[in-house]
């Protein structure tokens, strides 16, 4: 037994700077694979003679599973395995540069040293991560600004709303907050894959494709007691409303603190944001993607069927649905299994929608494969392809007879304005063209048919080639809803129903109209309004019918998603019915943030948050929630006194920034009449 335990100097500052890990708040060495790091230790006699190093990870380290490496001092860095190069030595200490291979298993390693025939002595532990800055790594991203954004940036912008009206909100990914890296390592060790076979699971952790899939399963609570429990009911008792979160840190910390019990509640952007945090933390370049008019094709026929009754009510029939928006992830890595053209951005989706391989996980699906209709390639191609490409079929359903009549089909409805945050800026970038060819083009239809053929669907009913009896049924009229005035919670909703007679003879039309409050998934929650009118349209005539839904009519019924679906089913005498529909997302009133004075590192700065009650009623149960990496610890929650009609509230907060640079302060205000009014402010902190 050795007389003295070696003392290790991990050169934390220098190594972290070299390895782009300075932002982690940890006393442990955190480095990236395929790159050298330096350590100094003492306590070994005649240090430079026959020292052997042992690096091991996982429960049963072995050379066969690449979870155990033994290596001695050599003069050059090994191309294949681990290596140690002597930097300097004295009678009492030795400095060594240690390099790991580009494809090393990531995770926490135990490092020990053995001198001659004595027992190995522990030098301590370090954490090894993916290395997007290194050209040999599967996650190598050649553009440095993209590495900064997709690995090191802890603030994000997530796009929401609907395709006619895109909105956005800030998110604090917080991947460098205290303990988050440990929690991410725990997530891997709690997966079903690890529980079934820990040795094999750990040996696969060199592969971003494998880890992306495992983590897409672990971020949702289904199957494995993962991080976040989904809830799309509109009722969120016993947990937090999904729209109220402003960052991942609080969610991941809660999961750990509760003894790894799922955190209540999440919806798609929460799953995507938490997965972004975990993957960025581990060093895999990752971003959130929002797809507008996103299809959930439950039966795998690349078609979404929607059913309406004679009154125009959208019926909950069949498992297919179209969401106003859906948020998933893209991660950047090589696909050795598919070939070079399929490398690059890969789709991962942690929202539990459909099972894949028996559990709720989705991806990675190569974005290039989706664009080219190569839906048979791993993983989950048909589901992702349908999210951006499915065709829509709208049916009139008679519950008394069970008869369904096709009203119309549309191939250009799904997958609009696919969006992500710009690199280094707070603006939106449209990536729709990276997912599909131009909507309505011959190439886009060709790819759609190719995908159907690969799935063995080419002989079944193809919505792009309707049956004979459907071809002749041309609608006699067309219709649309136009917005007249502002779309804001607290104000009346003014719309115009515009109907046009396409024929050269007069038409009588009976119109049944309804408005329902919905979730962002378009699930109906409460009926707000209904009306019916009978109109006669002269040949080729266009008429407008104003619709007003007053704030008191919708106030009690509105969900926290602030979405309303308006439909008009127009029954034309001796013609086919025409469906007119519009999904409306209302905006919240504004909230203002002002930084009073200069923000300096370790100096107090005052921030003022102001909100004016825009409605004629008192606001009660007002709460202000504030968070921001490097500006304050955790999430600050302040109760605010009730606000009378038109009254302005002003709240002052003190922040002590801990680091220089552009930092983001996220604010969320909610009360009994308004849910989650969010904004963010960039605070430029100077030294």
UniProtKB/TrEMBL annotation:
Its EC number is 2.3.2.13. SUPFAM superfamilies: Cysteine proteinases, E set domains, Transglutaminase, two C-terminal domains. Keywords: Acyltransferase, Calcium, Metal-binding, Transferase. Ca(2+) binds at residues 389, 391, 439, 444. Binds 1 Ca(2+) ion per subunit. Pfam families: Transglut_C, Transglut_core, Transglut_N. Its cofactor is Ca(2+). It catalyses: L-glutaminyl-[protein] + L-lysyl-[protein] = [protein]-L-lysyl-N(6)-5-L-glutamyl-[protein] + NH4(+). The active site is at 268, 326, 349. Residues 260-352 form the Transglutaminase-like domain. One of its GO terms (molecular function) is protein-glutamine gamma-glutamyltransferase activity. Gene3D superfamilies: Immunoglobulins, Transglutaminase-like. InterPro entries: Ig-like_fold, Ig_E-set, Papain-like_cys_pep_sf, Transglutaminase, Transglutaminase-like, Transglutaminase-like_sf, Transglutaminase_animal, Transglutaminase_AS. Belongs to the transglutaminase superfamily. Transglutaminase family. This is protein-glutamine gamma-glutamyltransferase. The gene is Tgm3.
